[in-house]
Amino acid sequence: MPHRSVRRAEKVPVEQADTPQPDRAPFRGVPQSWDELELLPIEASIARAHRPTYVPPRKPTAGEQELAATLEQLALGPPPLGERRRVREAAHESVPIRAVRLLLSGLLLAAALVAAVGPGGLTGTAAPREAVLDLAESLAALGPDDTVLLAFAYTPSYSGEMTPMADAVIETLAQRGARVVAVSIDPAGVALARQRLARAESAHADYQYGTQYVVAGYLSGYRAGARALCEGWGGLQVDAVRGLPWGELELTANLTGAGDVQRVVLLADDGSTARMWIEQLGACLTAPLDALVTGQLEATLTPYLLSGQLASLVAGGVAAGELEVALGVPPQAARWADGYASLLVILVLAAVAANVFYISVGSPEGAE
Amino acid sequence: MNGMLDSIAAGTSLAAGGWEQIGAWVAALITCAVLSYAIAPNPIARMMQFLLVGVAAGYATAQAWNLVLWPRLALLIQDPASQWLYGVYMVLGLLLLARGIKPLSAVANVPLGMLFGGGAALALGGALAGTLVPQIGASMVSLAPRDYGGGVAGWAYALDAALLLLGTIAALVAFQFTATGRGPLGQAWQRLVSGLGALGRAVIMVAFGVVYAGAMVTFFGLLASRLSFLAGVIGTLMAGGG
């Protein structure tokens, strides 16, 4: 059934809608304007007689065709070992822009090389910030009677940034004789925990598996796995190294659950995973929760530090070096201070150059 | 791998033995292969990506069997009368496999429903109790300098709290999209919302900038660590210790 206003609109000659017409008998009583018809203004253009305009289909650009080909390949084709060569349009990237891109890449690589093989003149010069000092003080206060729950929630992809922090904390705990129970919700985290704790064992003769530290293993079920730590040891049945039942290990035999630990240290490389640990564990554990995360998570997790849900937050990068300085452990990340300083210089120069270019030439669109 | 496990079982360090050296060499070669992608996409780099995915999947399966499935299965076999609950878990797990058999696929809805229901409940409860409520509570701060001890420091803290409050409100207002208000009051409200929204977008942009800078530092650190690792391996080779 057509709409009432549409039926009324059909009776009205279109020409009368725009210009007032003299009063003629055949049209007497018929509304003379669109306002009387109570129609929206847009309906005038719809109701007006017109020929449909043929709009020829737009020819897809080369970029759109490439995207379509990529989508087709992803959807239908088997993954090839050799990637198809992408043909770049020279017009999209002029020679100077390519040169600048190459120069920036080269400078960044040089800065990374300075960090990796440089003289290390700035090693240990970074003054630890307040959050780092807080964590160092907290760890220094732990003793042989204290147990720390270490949650390995990072993947090997980020071990370059996370391992120095993990080593610094584990080294400090081993020096203090504090006991460690390591858990992970990621299978790779179990391997990382074994690797880092075995390193501490090799450095400290009296730091033994089963008495001083235990790799408790893999908590399956992501959120459910972490939440299960609120009740005893959750779903953990055997340790991840010897496969012994939980009660047969000296360290864990006297612990009724994760609620018995004095501190929880979270090592995470992913924002949602870190939030998940804070949300699930923070609600039930009374022990302070420290987060050691990658630099990219600092902004994400700072609100949790300010709200008091985190006792301390150390976010990789420069802070990892500061942590090593504050804890007095052998430097790993602190040796990269030269590289970070070089990166800072490059970024400042790039920012200045980009702004000078923008002010003198205008926006890239304007330049083209 | 067995040598590594044996050394752990014997109470010795993982670092002992030549396994670590072999591992370091393999890691160095794989690192070079992956970094070669920066020069040009090539089949070796792609193969290393497949290797990573395959090894990760295989390791995860082994861990799931060794640490999750087998211990529970052993308990069930040893004492079925008291550990029967694990039998229920196993059956639910097996029902998931029915998803691949068309006539029985509906059966898999039972464990899937439990998985999604439990996951959603935990996620929602966690987000409410662990993020929403504490963060709202943390944003309710006093703006009175005397609450921070007075003096210059008190004023500084109060200003900090005011900026926090203003930034939070502005960022929330940035996501409000309403029609133009009618009347002088509506238009004034519209101008206020528009101004606050602009400020909120600026706050969000600053936050994105901080996140981007953090990501850059992270990836720079990862590159530096890989180059440092390669330099170490090459140094060992040059010293004749490889």
Uncertain runs of chain B are 1-16
Helix content, binned percent of chain B = over 70%
H/E series of chain B, N to C? HHHHHHH
Mean pLDDT of chain A: 81
Straight-line distance between termini of chain A = 55 Å
Count all strands of chain A and give the number.
Answer: 6
Indicate the structural class of chain A. alpha/beta
Rg of chain A, rounded, reads 33 Å
What percent of residues of chain A adopt helix (DSSP H or I)? 40-55%
Helix/strand order of chain A, N-terminal first: HHHHHHHEHEHEHHEHEHEHHH
> Rounded to an integer, what's the Rg of chain B over CA atoms?
29 Å
Give a description of the structure:
The complex is a heterodimer of chains A (368) and B (242). Chain A has helices at residues 4-10, 14-18, 34-37, 42-47, 62-76, 95-117, 130-140, 159-176, 187-203, 223-227, 250-253, 271-282, 298-306, 316-327, 337-361, 364-367, and strands at 147-153, 179-184, 213-218, 263-268, 289-293, 312-315. With 368 residues, chain A is α/β, with parallel strands linked by helices. In chain A, helix 12 (271-282) links the parallel strand 4 and strand 5. Chain A starts with a helix and ends with a helix. Mean pLDDT of chain A is 81; it is low at 1-12. Residues 1-16 of chain B have low confidence and may be disordered. Chain B starts with a helix and ends with a helix. The relative contact order of chain B is 0.05. At the A-B interface, helix 6, helix 8, helix 9, helix 10 and helix 12 of A face helix 3, helix 5 and helix 7 of B.
Describe the structure concisely.
The complex is a heterodimer of chains A (368) and B (242). Chain A is α/β, with parallel strands linked by helices. Helices cover 48% and strands 9% of the residues of chain A.
